Amino acid sequence: MYVVAVLLLTVVFPIIWVGADHFYFHSALPLMSLIGKWFVFWCAGIRLFFAGLRQFLQPRFTTEQIFGTKSEDALPFVRELGGANLGTGIVGIASLAKPSFILPVAIAATVSYGIWGIRHAKDIGRTRNQNIATISDLFVFLVLVTYIGFVTLA
Questions:
Q1: Chain centroid to CA 95: how far?
Q2: Rounded CA separation 37/95 (Å)
Q3: How many whole angstroms separate alpha carbon 74 and alpha carbon 15?
Q4: Less Cβ crowding at N or C end of the chain, within 10 Å?
Q5: What angle do CA 89, 7, 81 make, to 5 degrees?
């Protein structure tokens, strides 16, 4: 279920909505602006909102399935991470109604996804879920850093 959720929220849904906005609704926004809009909404908004909710309510999933530890010591830290992810997720979701939120949320999410992806990539003997987290985190990082570069250099 984790793999399906990550693929849908990180790749499938953002690409479908970018395509729909560009080709079907004929948005006046440049393609890169649509990429920023929908990747922020889905990856920094919806994905981090649900990740934060799960980390806060079920921190054991993150400690066991993502970090590969059964220690109880990490549970309070995962709950704290869940609170931060919930906050970012809410602002990412709100960016759909308030486009001025897109760039700041993209910057915050780029930093987080970059750190997470690099940290996961350094782990030796990753599990399937850890590999999915690594690849998806680095993918979102690359998409959002490209968007930020486009917006700030345009």
A1: 14
A2: 8
A3: 35
A4: N
A5: 35
The residue written with tokens 């930020």 in the block is 148
Q: Which domain holds residue 52?
A: 2-153
Largest Cα span, the chain: 51
Residues 89, 10: Cα–Cα separation, whole Å: 13
Q: Cα separation of 78 and 75, whole Å?
A: 5
**Which of 49, 43, 48 has the alpha carbon at shortest distance from 8?**
43
For the chain, 154 residues long, give each residue's pLDDT as a single digit of tens.
889 999 999 999 999 999 999 999 999 999 999 999 999 999 999 999 999 999 999 999 889 887 788 889 999 999 999 999 999 999 999 999 999 999 999 999 999 999 999 999 998 888 898 899 999 999 999 999 999 999 999 7
Distance between first and last Cα of the chain: 39
Let me know: does 48 contact 88? Beta carbons within 8 Å. yes
> How much is the pTM?
0.93
Burial class from Cβ neighbours inside 10 Å (0-12, 13-18, 19+) for residue 125 reads exposed
